[in-house]
Design a protein that fits this description.
- Pfam families: Reprolysin.
- One of its GO terms (biological process) is proteolysis.
- This is Peptidase M12B domain-containing protein.
- The protein has about 210 residues and is an alpha/beta fold.
- The protein is built from seven helices and six strands; from the N terminus they run βαααβαβαβββαα.
- It has a six-stranded mixed beta sheet with strand order 1-5-6-4-2-3, sandwiched between helices.
- It starts with a strand and ends with a helix.
Amino acid sequence: MNTELIKHSIGTRHISPLTQTLNQHFKFVFQSQQKKQNCLSVTAAVRLVILNSLSTTVDLFVVVTRVFPQYYKPLNIRVMLVHLEVFKDSNPFSVEGAPGEVLGRFAKWRRENLNPRTRNDVGHGRPGAYGNVLGMAFVGTVCSLASSAGINVVSSNSTLSYFSTIVAHEIGHNLGMNHDRDGCVCDGNCIMGIFSDDAASVWSRQIKTLGQVC
């Protein structure tokens, strides 16, 4: 199963902190007709579930409901938070070991415990910190009940806008997007770059191919 790791040492050009307001950041998005043709003709809905600790629930809720979904609007994708699972004491699965192992355990927990209770398309969690790894997700699994999952890490001094780019990046992987090829250009700050012609074309093909299956 293909996964992508985001690290400080190699991924900063893909996950840049927002230096402008959301309106400023997105005013250039899809200005040309060539870019607009990659948008879906109808809005696609992605149902998101979040696993989180009690201490950061409020901040995460703000990110999920108000900030990062803005990244997907130009692609005519609506990301909806349908379930927020909060644990006061500990995670319901082990968070020890490599991030890939933790991601696997989270995906297993989602499949066995969360999916029977809540219908969803993607599940993401914040289980802990793993060195310089900011996030990890299975690629192209949005239609999979077993592996449509990702984990996101944020330090105590990270801003909400910065964390929103991490979540958007990892969900982009779930939606079938890989990191942009060299030479791929996007307007404003790049997030893998989710709004470049390259990434938008990949997403458009992915959803048109799998849309009837989800």
